[in-house]
Amino acid sequence: MKKLFLGLAVAASAMTFAQETQTTVNTDPIKKEKQPIRFGIKAGGNSAYFSEQKLSLNNQKIGFHAGVLVNIPLSQKFSLQPEVLYNQLGARNVVSSTDVTTGNTNVKTKSEYKTTMNYISVPLMVQMRPTERFYVEAGPEFSYFINGKNSGESSVATTVGGVTTTQTVTNSDDINKDNVNKFNLGLGLGLGYDITQNLGINARYINSLTDMRNQKPEGTEPLNHRAFQLGLNYKF
Q: For 66-94, what is the mean pLDDT?
């Protein structure tokens, strides 16, 4: 009988050890080990304006950004992500907008002005992951001005008896590079979510710290870029 109890005790101990060993083996190593370095691409839309403007839909210049990235894990929760982007910034200003109806005639007028400024930007983001898929990020962004354009558009739409006639006048000219500060320093703050192991979505706000003008007129406030970015990224 003693030998039977002893045998059962040894068997129970062996089964317990096997279960513990199996649990250890099945533990997801991703949660315990630092991830490898990964390369990727990203692209998305920009909504930009100048610091002297009030934040409104009438002041938002729609553009885009696109480029490459490399994600370098520093620990289980922190990583460094340098990027190289083609980045379109600028601003939009609706100078005037009217809508007048007289009898059966409606006249709508609109005059707006746009500034488009193209940069090569190098964000250097530090990312922190409170969960496996979600992260927050912050870091500097270094940009170099390539070229730009100022454009204006005025339109008059006249509707009589349901028939609309539109007259539009446009003009544009290139920005003089000598008037622009070639280098720009900004700060970025954002968040992101990994939809799958490869595909993710990211939102970021960029606040420029450098006056974009090469020579700031005396007695004026600095003129800086502001931009919201929303895009997708794909890591290989």
A: 97
Statement to judge: residues 194 and 210 lie in one domain: yes
Q: Residue 168 is encoded by which pair of tokens?
A: 């539009």
> How high is the mean pLDDT of the chain?
88
In terms of residue numbers, what domain contains 16?
1-33
Longest Cα–Cα distance of the chain, Å, equals 110
d(CA 180, CA 147): 9
| Separation of alpha carbons 16 and 21, rounded Å | 9
53 φ/ψ angles, rounded to the nearest 5 degrees: -95, 150
Which tokens go with 128? 């922190």
Reported confidence tier of residue 14, pLDDT bands at 50, 70, 90: very low
Residue pair 138/124 in contact (Cβ under 8 Å)? The answer is no
> 88, 118 in Cβ contact below 8 A?
yes
Residue with token string 């109806």 = 101
